[in-house]
């Protein structure tokens, strides 16, 4: 899974400020590996290598499906997949953005509040 600190660092290096990065993890059960592959392709999560071979032997795919189901299958016969959804917010620097106050300018002690 992706580390939110890495994403935040990339946004900061790209020049964004007031960064917020959050993630959700969604677990989905599929009837078989074939439906999972179809969903991945529909999401654009497939091999993007230009020079790749376009075909995989059907026997290889059938073996992969059986192995995946054996190793990771649920009791109901479905196969699980976990998706990480990443939410990112960053703002272009502007004069109107809130600026941090000078260190020591607080009027309430955190020791008193906590």
Automatic annotation (TrEMBL):
InterPro entries: Malonyl-ACP_OMT. One of its GO terms (molecular function) is methyltransferase activity. Keywords: Methyltransferase, Transferase. Residues 100-114 have a biased composition (Basic and acidic residues). Residues 94-114 are annotated as: Disordered. It comes from the Eukaryota. The keyword Zinc-finger does not apply. One of its GO terms (cellular component) is mitochondrion. GO terms for biological process: methylation; mitochondrial respiratory chain complex I assembly. The keyword Lyase does not apply. This is Uncharacterized protein. It comes from Candolleomyces aberdarensis.
